[in-house]
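Homework help board

Subject: predicted structure for assignment chain

Our instructor gave us this sequence and asked us to write out the predicted structure in token form, then describe one feature. I got the tokens but I'm not sure how to describe them. Can anyone check?
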Amino acid sequence: MNYKKITFGVLLCCFGIQAILSQTALFVKVKSGANTPYNLTTLKSLTFEDGKVKVNKKDASFSTFVRTDIQHLTFAENITTELVSQNTKNKLRIYPNPVVDILNIELESTFPLQIEIVSIDARVVLSTILLSNKSSISVTSLPKGLYLLRSSIGTAKFIK
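My token output:
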């Protein structure tokens, strides 16, 4: 069976050079709800063969998805937002940005950290304490708009 291999060079031609240059991330959303982000600068190619989609990275690692399990592939402008305090040990990453359902939060070190999600009109819409270095928060109930994630480390904005 013939298969097609599409590299990012070919994708540039297909999607338009101007449009793809402003994009920095690829998101693979599967029907189960997981949304996996990839930074475009770390990717080597996408391969579509034998009913599977393979995301190949420059470091020779890869991820494979069953084509029928994929809800959609999305190119977006931002993959993460990072906050860095004066103490560089306290680093916080949030992704994807913009977010649809689940906001992922990663801390460089594990410690209790209280966070608040604040709407643009300064209302605290969610408050929680993170106890591990990797957490996910559902923002499904939030209306579309601009939000701030506020913590003792700093403040970052994200879009829903």
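Reply (TA_rk): Your tokens look well-formed. For the description, you could write something like this. Residues 8-15 form the longest helix (8 residues). That's the kind of observation they're looking for.
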